[in-house]
TrEMBL record:
Residues 168-383 form the PPM-type phosphatase domain. Keywords: Hydrolase. Pfam families: SpoIIE. This is Serine phosphatase RsbU (Regulator of sigma subunit). InterPro entries: Bact_Sigma-Reg, PPM-type-like_dom_sf, PPM-type_phosphatase-like_dom.
Length: 395
Protein backbone atom coordinates (compact mmCIF):
# COMPACT_ATOMS: atom_id res chain seq x y z
CA UNK A 1 0.00 0.00 0.00
CA UNK A 2 2.89 2.38 0.81
CA UNK A 3 4.44 1.57 -2.57
CA UNK A 4 1.16 2.35 -4.30
CA UNK A 5 0.85 5.65 -2.42
CA UNK A 6 4.36 6.58 -3.57
CA UNK A 7 3.40 6.00 -7.22
CA UNK A 8 0.29 8.14 -6.75
CA UNK A 9 2.41 10.97 -5.38
CA UNK A 10 4.83 10.74 -8.31
CA UNK A 11 1.95 10.80 -10.80
CA UNK A 12 0.47 13.90 -9.20
CA UNK A 13 3.82 15.70 -9.38
CA UNK A 14 4.66 14.65 -12.95
CA UNK A 15 4.24 16.86 -16.01
CA UNK A 16 1.05 15.91 -17.91
CA UNK A 17 2.93 14.34 -20.83
CA UNK A 18 5.18 12.25 -18.55
CA UNK A 19 2.57 10.13 -16.75
CA UNK A 20 3.47 6.97 -18.65
CA UNK A 21 7.16 7.51 -17.85
CA UNK A 22 6.34 7.57 -14.13
CA UNK A 23 4.30 4.35 -14.38
CA UNK A 24 6.99 2.67 -16.49
CA UNK A 25 9.70 3.55 -13.97
CA UNK A 26 7.62 2.29 -11.05
CA UNK A 27 6.80 -1.02 -12.75
CA UNK A 28 10.41 -1.60 -13.80
CA UNK A 29 11.57 -1.02 -10.25
CA UNK A 30 8.97 -3.28 -8.64
CA UNK A 31 8.42 -5.98 -11.24
CA UNK A 32 11.50 -5.87 -13.51
CA UNK A 33 9.33 -5.28 -16.56
CA UNK A 34 10.80 -5.10 -20.05
CA UNK A 35 8.26 -2.76 -21.67
CA UNK A 36 5.11 -0.80 -20.91
CA UNK A 37 2.60 0.41 -23.50
CA UNK A 38 -0.53 2.52 -23.04
CA UNK A 39 -3.38 2.41 -25.54
CA UNK A 40 -6.57 4.47 -25.40
CA UNK A 41 -9.88 3.65 -27.06
CA UNK A 42 -10.67 5.80 -30.06
CA UNK A 43 -13.84 7.87 -30.32
CA UNK A 44 -15.60 5.16 -32.31
CA UNK A 45 -14.66 2.55 -29.66
CA UNK A 46 -13.37 0.28 -32.42
CA UNK A 47 -9.59 0.50 -31.96
CA UNK A 48 -7.03 0.94 -29.19
CA UNK A 49 -4.48 3.60 -30.13
CA UNK A 50 -0.93 3.89 -28.74
CA UNK A 51 -0.18 6.97 -26.62
CA UNK A 52 3.04 8.44 -28.03
CA UNK A 53 4.41 11.75 -29.23
CA UNK A 54 5.12 9.97 -32.53
CA UNK A 55 2.57 7.11 -32.76
CA UNK A 56 4.30 4.65 -35.12
CA UNK A 57 2.66 1.54 -33.66
CA UNK A 58 -0.41 0.26 -35.47
CA UNK A 59 -3.74 0.36 -33.59
CA UNK A 60 -5.30 -2.91 -32.48
CA UNK A 61 -9.02 -3.69 -32.67
CA UNK A 62 -11.17 -3.50 -29.55
CA UNK A 63 -12.72 -6.78 -30.66
CA UNK A 64 -10.58 -9.84 -31.31
CA UNK A 65 -7.29 -8.73 -29.72
CA UNK A 66 -5.61 -9.54 -26.38
CA UNK A 67 -5.76 -5.86 -25.39
CA UNK A 68 -9.40 -5.72 -26.38
CA UNK A 69 -10.13 -8.77 -24.24
CA UNK A 70 -8.91 -6.93 -21.13
CA UNK A 71 -10.75 -3.78 -22.22
CA UNK A 72 -14.04 -5.60 -22.76
CA UNK A 73 -13.93 -7.85 -19.68
CA UNK A 74 -12.56 -5.04 -17.49
CA UNK A 75 -10.10 -7.37 -15.78
CA UNK A 76 -6.41 -8.20 -16.29
CA UNK A 77 -5.63 -10.66 -19.06
CA UNK A 78 -2.31 -12.55 -19.08
CA UNK A 79 -1.47 -13.88 -22.52
CA UNK A 80 -0.87 -17.65 -22.57
CA UNK A 81 2.73 -18.79 -23.22
CA UNK A 82 3.76 -21.94 -25.03
CA UNK A 83 7.32 -21.81 -23.66
CA UNK A 84 9.09 -20.23 -20.66
CA UNK A 85 10.16 -16.64 -21.14
CA UNK A 86 8.71 -13.12 -21.01
CA UNK A 87 5.09 -12.80 -19.97
CA UNK A 88 2.65 -10.12 -21.16
CA UNK A 89 -0.31 -8.81 -19.19
CA UNK A 90 -2.99 -6.38 -20.38
CA UNK A 91 -4.70 -4.28 -17.68
CA UNK A 92 -7.77 -2.06 -18.16
CA UNK A 93 -7.41 1.66 -17.45
CA UNK A 94 -10.80 2.76 -16.10
CA UNK A 95 -12.01 5.66 -13.96
CA UNK A 96 -15.33 5.36 -12.09
CA UNK A 97 -16.70 3.06 -14.76
CA UNK A 98 -15.45 5.15 -17.71
CA UNK A 99 -13.28 2.82 -19.81
CA UNK A 100 -10.28 4.74 -21.15
CA UNK A 101 -7.91 2.09 -22.47
CA UNK A 102 -5.41 -0.66 -21.66
CA UNK A 103 -1.91 -0.76 -20.18
CA UNK A 104 0.25 -3.60 -21.55
CA UNK A 105 3.16 -4.79 -19.41
CA UNK A 106 5.78 -7.32 -20.50
CA UNK A 107 8.05 -8.97 -17.92
CA UNK A 108 11.64 -9.90 -18.66
CA UNK A 109 11.16 -13.41 -17.26
CA UNK A 110 8.40 -15.33 -15.48
CA UNK A 111 5.11 -13.71 -14.63
CA UNK A 112 3.15 -12.09 -11.84
CA UNK A 113 1.35 -13.27 -8.75
CA UNK A 114 -2.31 -12.47 -8.20
CA UNK A 115 -1.23 -9.84 -5.68
CA UNK A 116 1.14 -8.32 -8.22
CA UNK A 117 -1.57 -8.03 -10.84
CA UNK A 118 -3.89 -6.45 -8.27
CA UNK A 119 -1.26 -3.84 -7.39
CA UNK A 120 -0.60 -3.06 -11.06
CA UNK A 121 -4.34 -2.67 -11.55
CA UNK A 122 -4.37 -0.09 -8.74
CA UNK A 123 -1.61 1.78 -10.52
CA UNK A 124 -3.71 1.72 -13.72
CA UNK A 125 -6.61 3.29 -11.85
CA UNK A 126 -4.36 6.06 -10.52
CA UNK A 127 -3.01 6.58 -14.05
CA UNK A 128 -6.54 6.90 -15.41
CA UNK A 129 -7.42 9.61 -12.88
CA UNK A 130 -4.30 11.57 -13.76
CA UNK A 131 -4.97 11.26 -17.50
CA UNK A 132 -8.34 12.95 -17.07
CA UNK A 133 -6.70 15.77 -15.11
CA UNK A 134 -3.80 16.05 -17.58
CA UNK A 135 -6.17 16.51 -20.54
CA UNK A 136 -6.72 20.08 -19.34
CA UNK A 137 -3.07 20.87 -20.10
CA UNK A 138 -1.98 18.61 -22.97
CA UNK A 139 -3.44 17.22 -26.21
CA UNK A 140 -1.37 14.03 -26.00
CA UNK A 141 -4.14 11.78 -24.71
CA UNK A 142 -6.91 13.36 -26.79
CA UNK A 143 -4.84 12.89 -29.95
CA UNK A 144 -4.33 9.22 -29.09
CA UNK A 145 -8.09 8.69 -29.18
CA UNK A 146 -8.37 9.69 -32.85
CA UNK A 147 -8.26 7.07 -35.56
CA UNK A 148 -8.90 9.87 -38.06
CA UNK A 149 -9.54 13.59 -38.01
CA UNK A 150 -12.65 14.91 -36.25
CA UNK A 151 -14.88 17.44 -37.97
CA UNK A 152 -15.07 20.75 -36.12
CA UNK A 153 -18.70 20.01 -35.18
CA UNK A 154 -17.68 16.63 -33.73
CA UNK A 155 -14.80 18.25 -31.83
CA UNK A 156 -17.26 20.63 -30.17
CA UNK A 157 -19.72 17.86 -29.35
CA UNK A 158 -17.15 15.46 -27.83
CA UNK A 159 -15.82 18.24 -25.60
CA UNK A 160 -19.33 18.58 -24.14
CA UNK A 161 -19.65 14.95 -23.07
CA UNK A 162 -19.11 13.90 -19.44
CA UNK A 163 -17.61 10.54 -20.49
CA UNK A 164 -18.85 7.40 -22.20
CA UNK A 165 -19.74 5.38 -19.13
CA UNK A 166 -20.11 5.76 -15.39
CA UNK A 167 -20.92 3.38 -12.56
CA UNK A 168 -22.11 3.74 -8.98
CA UNK A 169 -23.45 1.16 -6.52
CA UNK A 170 -27.02 2.10 -7.57
CA UNK A 171 -26.56 2.02 -11.37
CA UNK A 172 -24.28 1.52 -14.32
CA UNK A 173 -24.56 3.64 -17.45
CA UNK A 174 -23.01 3.59 -20.93
CA UNK A 175 -23.55 5.76 -24.01
CA UNK A 176 -22.24 6.14 -27.55
CA UNK A 177 -22.62 8.40 -30.58
CA UNK A 178 -22.30 7.55 -34.26
CA UNK A 179 -20.91 8.55 -36.67
CA UNK A 180 -18.22 9.24 -34.07
CA UNK A 181 -16.02 11.50 -36.20
CA UNK A 182 -18.75 13.62 -37.82
CA UNK A 183 -21.56 13.97 -35.27
CA UNK A 184 -23.91 16.92 -35.51
CA UNK A 185 -26.61 17.69 -32.96
CA UNK A 186 -27.07 14.62 -30.75
CA UNK A 187 -25.63 14.71 -27.25
CA UNK A 188 -25.96 13.22 -23.78
CA UNK A 189 -25.08 14.56 -20.36
CA UNK A 190 -25.25 13.34 -16.78
CA UNK A 191 -24.50 14.45 -13.26
CA UNK A 192 -24.50 12.39 -10.06
CA UNK A 193 -24.98 13.72 -6.53
CA UNK A 194 -25.48 11.94 -3.21
CA UNK A 195 -29.22 11.79 -3.87
CA UNK A 196 -29.79 11.90 -7.63
CA UNK A 197 -28.66 10.94 -11.10
CA UNK A 198 -29.68 13.57 -13.66
CA UNK A 199 -29.54 12.35 -17.26
CA UNK A 200 -30.34 14.35 -20.41
CA UNK A 201 -30.38 13.24 -24.04
CA UNK A 202 -30.46 15.96 -26.69
CA UNK A 203 -31.30 15.85 -30.40
CA UNK A 204 -30.44 19.26 -31.83
CA UNK A 205 -31.95 20.56 -35.05
CA UNK A 206 -29.75 21.31 -38.04
CA UNK A 207 -26.52 19.98 -39.49
CA UNK A 208 -22.81 20.57 -38.98
CA UNK A 209 -21.73 23.70 -37.14
CA UNK A 210 -25.30 24.96 -36.89
CA UNK A 211 -26.30 21.86 -34.95
CA UNK A 212 -23.12 21.87 -32.84
CA UNK A 213 -23.64 25.49 -31.77
CA UNK A 214 -27.28 24.82 -30.97
CA UNK A 215 -26.47 21.76 -28.85
CA UNK A 216 -23.70 23.61 -26.99
CA UNK A 217 -26.25 26.27 -26.04
CA UNK A 218 -28.82 23.69 -24.90
CA UNK A 219 -26.42 21.57 -22.84
CA UNK A 220 -24.82 24.54 -21.12
CA UNK A 221 -28.21 26.15 -20.43
CA UNK A 222 -29.41 22.91 -18.82
CA UNK A 223 -26.22 22.67 -16.76
CA UNK A 224 -26.56 26.29 -15.67
CA UNK A 225 -30.15 25.70 -14.56
CA UNK A 226 -29.29 22.46 -12.76
CA UNK A 227 -26.38 24.07 -10.93
CA UNK A 228 -28.64 26.96 -9.94
CA UNK A 229 -30.81 24.43 -8.08
CA UNK A 230 -33.85 24.50 -10.39
CA UNK A 231 -36.10 21.46 -10.56
CA UNK A 232 -36.39 19.43 -13.77
CA UNK A 233 -39.25 21.47 -15.23
CA UNK A 234 -37.38 24.65 -14.35
CA UNK A 235 -34.27 23.38 -16.12
CA UNK A 236 -36.29 22.72 -19.26
CA UNK A 237 -37.91 26.17 -19.08
CA UNK A 238 -34.64 28.04 -18.67
CA UNK A 239 -33.01 26.18 -21.57
CA UNK A 240 -36.15 26.76 -23.66
CA UNK A 241 -35.90 30.51 -23.06
CA UNK A 242 -32.20 30.55 -23.92
CA UNK A 243 -32.73 28.74 -27.23
CA UNK A 244 -35.76 30.87 -28.19
CA UNK A 245 -33.90 34.09 -27.36
CA UNK A 246 -31.10 33.04 -29.70
CA UNK A 247 -33.04 31.51 -32.61
CA UNK A 248 -36.59 32.90 -32.25
CA UNK A 249 -38.12 29.53 -33.07
CA UNK A 250 -36.21 28.95 -36.31
CA UNK A 251 -34.14 26.23 -34.63
CA UNK A 252 -35.03 24.11 -31.61
CA UNK A 253 -33.86 21.05 -29.73
CA UNK A 254 -35.62 17.84 -28.73
CA UNK A 255 -34.60 16.77 -25.22
CA UNK A 256 -35.49 14.02 -22.75
CA UNK A 257 -34.66 15.00 -19.15
CA UNK A 258 -34.61 12.38 -16.39
CA UNK A 259 -33.79 12.58 -12.69
CA UNK A 260 -33.43 9.34 -10.72
CA UNK A 261 -33.74 9.22 -6.94
CA UNK A 262 -30.87 6.94 -5.94
CA UNK A 263 -32.54 5.87 -2.68
CA UNK A 264 -36.01 4.98 -3.98
CA UNK A 265 -35.81 4.46 -7.75
CA UNK A 266 -38.35 7.21 -8.30
CA UNK A 267 -37.88 9.00 -11.63
CA UNK A 268 -38.94 12.48 -12.71
CA UNK A 269 -39.12 13.04 -16.47
CA UNK A 270 -39.70 15.86 -18.93
CA UNK A 271 -40.20 14.72 -22.53
CA UNK A 272 -39.53 17.71 -24.76
CA UNK A 273 -39.11 16.03 -28.11
CA UNK A 274 -37.90 13.00 -30.01
CA UNK A 275 -35.48 10.92 -27.84
CA UNK A 276 -37.39 7.78 -26.75
CA UNK A 277 -36.94 5.28 -23.94
CA UNK A 278 -37.47 1.52 -23.65
CA UNK A 279 -37.38 -0.73 -20.59
CA UNK A 280 -36.18 -4.31 -20.36
CA UNK A 281 -37.73 -5.88 -17.25
CA UNK A 282 -37.13 -9.59 -16.98
CA UNK A 283 -37.46 -10.74 -20.60
CA UNK A 284 -40.06 -8.17 -21.61
CA UNK A 285 -39.14 -5.08 -23.62
CA UNK A 286 -41.65 -2.25 -23.64
CA UNK A 287 -41.66 1.35 -24.73
CA UNK A 288 -41.89 3.89 -21.89
CA UNK A 289 -44.43 6.45 -23.02
CA UNK A 290 -44.45 10.07 -21.87
CA UNK A 291 -46.74 13.00 -22.61
CA UNK A 292 -44.96 14.70 -25.50
CA UNK A 293 -44.20 18.35 -24.82
CA UNK A 294 -42.78 21.00 -27.14
CA UNK A 295 -39.08 20.92 -28.03
CA UNK A 296 -36.90 23.53 -26.38
CA UNK A 297 -36.93 26.89 -28.15
CA UNK A 298 -39.87 26.29 -30.47
CA UNK A 299 -42.06 28.96 -28.83
CA UNK A 300 -41.54 31.69 -26.28
CA UNK A 301 -41.90 30.87 -22.56
CA UNK A 302 -43.19 27.32 -22.90
CA UNK A 303 -44.17 25.75 -19.59
CA UNK A 304 -43.04 22.19 -18.92
CA UNK A 305 -44.62 19.57 -16.68
CA UNK A 306 -42.79 16.80 -14.84
CA UNK A 307 -44.02 13.21 -15.05
CA UNK A 308 -43.12 10.41 -12.65
CA UNK A 309 -42.35 6.71 -12.92
CA UNK A 310 -40.36 4.13 -11.01
CA UNK A 311 -37.49 1.82 -11.85
CA UNK A 312 -36.88 -1.48 -10.09
CA UNK A 313 -33.61 -3.33 -9.38
CA UNK A 314 -32.76 -5.36 -12.47
CA UNK A 315 -34.37 -2.91 -14.90
CA UNK A 316 -32.44 -1.94 -18.00
CA UNK A 317 -33.42 1.38 -19.61
CA UNK A 318 -32.41 2.23 -23.15
CA UNK A 319 -32.72 5.68 -24.73
CA UNK A 320 -32.29 6.22 -28.45
CA UNK A 321 -32.36 9.23 -30.75
CA UNK A 322 -34.45 9.32 -33.91
CA UNK A 323 -31.31 8.39 -35.82
CA UNK A 324 -31.71 4.94 -34.23
CA UNK A 325 -35.41 4.09 -34.18
CA UNK A 326 -36.16 6.12 -37.33
CA UNK A 327 -33.32 4.59 -39.34
CA UNK A 328 -34.48 2.62 -42.39
CA UNK A 329 -33.30 -0.59 -44.01
CA UNK A 330 -32.56 -0.92 -47.74
CA UNK A 331 -36.21 -1.98 -48.14
CA UNK A 332 -37.40 1.21 -46.46
CA UNK A 333 -38.51 -0.36 -43.16
CA UNK A 334 -37.77 1.68 -40.04
CA UNK A 335 -35.70 0.08 -37.27
CA UNK A 336 -38.55 0.79 -34.88
CA UNK A 337 -39.68 -1.02 -31.76
CA UNK A 338 -39.58 -4.64 -32.94
CA UNK A 339 -36.00 -4.65 -34.26
CA UNK A 340 -34.77 -2.58 -31.31
CA UNK A 341 -36.51 -4.91 -28.83
CA UNK A 342 -34.88 -7.94 -30.46
CA UNK A 343 -31.47 -6.31 -30.21
CA UNK A 344 -31.98 -5.27 -26.59
CA UNK A 345 -33.07 -8.80 -25.64
CA UNK A 346 -30.20 -10.40 -27.55
CA UNK A 347 -27.64 -8.33 -25.64
CA UNK A 348 -29.25 -8.56 -22.20
CA UNK A 349 -26.20 -10.28 -20.70
CA UNK A 350 -23.75 -7.60 -21.82
CA UNK A 351 -22.80 -4.91 -19.28
CA UNK A 352 -24.45 -1.54 -19.88
CA UNK A 353 -21.30 0.11 -21.22
CA UNK A 354 -21.11 -2.44 -24.07
CA UNK A 355 -24.79 -2.34 -25.07
CA UNK A 356 -24.78 0.94 -27.06
CA UNK A 357 -22.04 -0.25 -29.42
CA UNK A 358 -23.63 -3.68 -29.78
CA UNK A 359 -26.98 -2.14 -30.67
CA UNK A 360 -25.38 0.26 -33.15
CA UNK A 361 -23.65 -2.70 -34.82
CA UNK A 362 -27.05 -4.35 -35.15
CA UNK A 363 -28.36 -1.10 -36.64
CA UNK A 364 -25.58 -1.07 -39.24
CA UNK A 365 -26.41 -4.67 -40.17
CA UNK A 366 -30.07 -3.73 -40.45
CA UNK A 367 -29.32 -0.81 -42.76
CA UNK A 368 -27.00 -2.83 -44.96
CA UNK A 369 -24.68 -0.77 -47.16
CA UNK A 370 -26.60 2.46 -46.62
CA UNK A 371 -24.59 4.94 -44.50
CA UNK A 372 -26.15 6.70 -41.52
CA UNK A 373 -27.91 9.86 -42.67
CA UNK A 374 -28.37 11.20 -39.12
CA UNK A 375 -26.68 11.00 -35.74
CA UNK A 376 -27.41 7.78 -33.89
CA UNK A 377 -27.22 8.03 -30.10
CA UNK A 378 -27.79 5.19 -27.61
CA UNK A 379 -27.74 5.40 -23.81
CA UNK A 380 -28.10 2.26 -21.67
CA UNK A 381 -28.79 2.39 -17.92
CA UNK A 382 -28.79 -0.64 -15.62
CA UNK A 383 -30.55 0.01 -12.33
CA UNK A 384 -29.41 -1.92 -9.25
CA UNK A 385 -31.04 0.14 -6.50
CA UNK A 386 -29.54 1.21 -3.23
CA UNK A 387 -28.72 -1.59 -0.83
CA UNK A 388 -29.89 -1.39 2.78
CA UNK A 389 -27.74 -2.56 5.68
CA UNK A 390 -29.51 -5.91 5.43
CA UNK A 391 -28.49 -6.21 1.78
CA UNK A 392 -31.96 -5.69 0.32
CA UNK A 393 -32.58 -2.89 -2.21
CA UNK A 394 -34.80 -0.09 -0.94
CA UNK A 395 -37.34 0.49 -3.67
Amino acid sequence: MDRFAAVERELRKAAPHLLLDVVTGALRERYDVQSVELRLADYGMTTLQVVSEVPLVEPVPVHDSPQGRAFGAQEPYVQPRATPGPATAHLPVTVRGDRLGVLTVTAREGGWSREGLAEMQQICEALGHEILVAERDTDLYLLARRATRLTLAAEMQWQLLPGRSVSRPEFSLGAHLEPAYAIFGDNFDWSVSAQHLTLTVTNGMGKGMEAALMTNLVVNALRNARRAGLDLAGQASLADQAVYAQYRGELYAAVLLLRFDLATGGVEAVDAGSPRMWRLRGRKVESVEFDAQLPLGMFEETEYVTERLRVEPGDRMLIGSDGVYGSASAAGEHYGHRALARSLSAHRFLPSEQVPLALLRDLRDYRGAAPLDDDALVVCLDWFGRQSSAGDPRV
